[in-house]
Amino acid sequence: MVSDNTVDTAKSEYDVDLTVTLTEAPGAEDRTFHLRSAGGVLSPDPNSVDSNLPDAPAALAAVEQFGEEIFFPEPRPDRICTQQYGGPQVAVVKGWFRGRKVHSHFSRTDGCEIARWKALAALLGNTGGSSGAV
Hints:
The protein is α+β, with helices and mostly antiparallel strands and about 130 residues long. It contains two helices and five strands; from the N terminus they run E-E-E-H-E-E-H. Strands 3-2-1-4-5 form a five-stranded antiparallel β-sheet. The chain starts with 15 loop residues before the first strand and ends in a 15-residue tail after the last helix. About 30% of the residues are buried.
């Protein structure tokens, strides 16, 4: 997981301005999704580039609920993760969350990463393995 939580002066005009690049399997074509909202309001046009996720309202709700702890985690040396493999899916989330720069990597390589993936499944496109189903 990579996270860059620096505050930058080139902030987005949105409260949430995220671009997700999802790769379902090695060698598969990347899929790109966007989530943008201002004041908790998504673009009224579901086909707009502003928020083109399959379920943008659910994605926004997940980001609002879990974004702070997932995008900007506090180090926890006591954290133990099960050694299980959830699939080859990889997602990179870049952009802005409440004025803070986001650059996070998601995978399904162990129990902790699978839990992160499940928490933000709606943001990660709810496609194939991104639902968290094992």
